[in-house]
Amino acid sequence: MAATALEIEQNPKFKELVATRKKLGWTLSLVMLAIYFGFILLVAFNKAFLGTPISPNGVTTIGIPIGLGVIVSAFVLTGFYVVRANARYDELNRQIVEESK
Question: Which three-class secondary structure state does DSSP give residue 11?
């Protein structure tokens, strides 16, 4: 017999799944916000630093790789979440489904 939603919600593994996903989600969100707002604060308060050329004769400034770093960090954090979800959360989800059958 299939378990009801209430029975699944009472499952300790389901509670663990919800808590760990929530904790990781908030942590990664805060990290991304810190990176993003750090960049915005640099733009707002230290334009001269971001406008400094990387090389004496170059036209590329320090702001370009830092801005790219902000974008790449979003992909890296997303990739980290996906790897974590595939390694841990999918297994917990499978166990919960098996127990609820």
Answer: coil
Distance of alpha carbon 88 from its chain centroid, rounded?
A: 16
Cα distance between residue 8 and residue 52, in whole Å? 57
Round to whole Å and give the CA distance between 14 and 90: 12
Domain that holds residue 95: 5-99
Q: Which amino acid is at 35?
A: I
Q: Which two tokens stand for residue 54?
A: 């990387």
Answer yes or no: are the C-beta atoms of 17 and 96 closer than 8 Å.
yes
Q: Give the span between the Cα atoms of 6 and 38, in whole angstroms.
A: 43
Nearest-angstrom CA–CA distance, 30 and 36? 10
pLDDT digits (tens, 9 = 90+) for 47-56: 999 999 999 8
pLDDT digits (tens, 9 = 90+) for 6-25: 888 888 888 999 999 999 99
Q: Locate 57 and state its tokens.
A: 């004769």
Two tokens, residue 42: 């640099």
